[in-house]
Amino acid sequence: TGSCLCGGVTFRVSGDLRPVVACHCQQCRKTSGHYVAASRTKNAGLELLADATLSWFRSSDKAERGFCNRCGGNLFWRVIGSDSISIMAGMLDAPTGLKMASHIYVADAGDYYDINDGLPAYPAGD
Length: 126
Prior knowledge:
Layout (H helix, E strand, L loop, with lengths): L1 E2 L5 E5 L6 E4 L2 H7 L3 E7 L3 E6 L2 E5 L4 E6 L5 E6 L4 E5 L11 E5 L22
């Protein structure tokens, strides 16, 4: 299960969740204030229990981001037309059982932090 900070968006995930991937691209940094750590599941595995405050922002010609329009929580990212959806790991209730697997778009990482956890790090996508 998971939710945004105010509870306006709540959800349940059934099925598999991908290990967490940290994305350091400029868009993710701008929407989160740092970098994004997200898991992913099939669309069919995500059940919205409450979505009255869920809004979608088309952040590029191919993707959109779901957020709570009340508390500002950054919840989801999806490629338009894809059969899967990324869920920001911090929105999932503990225990998740998930582990961080890698970093992507490290060429765009902020200049105020280091990536030195020993996980695979890719200049662009994985």
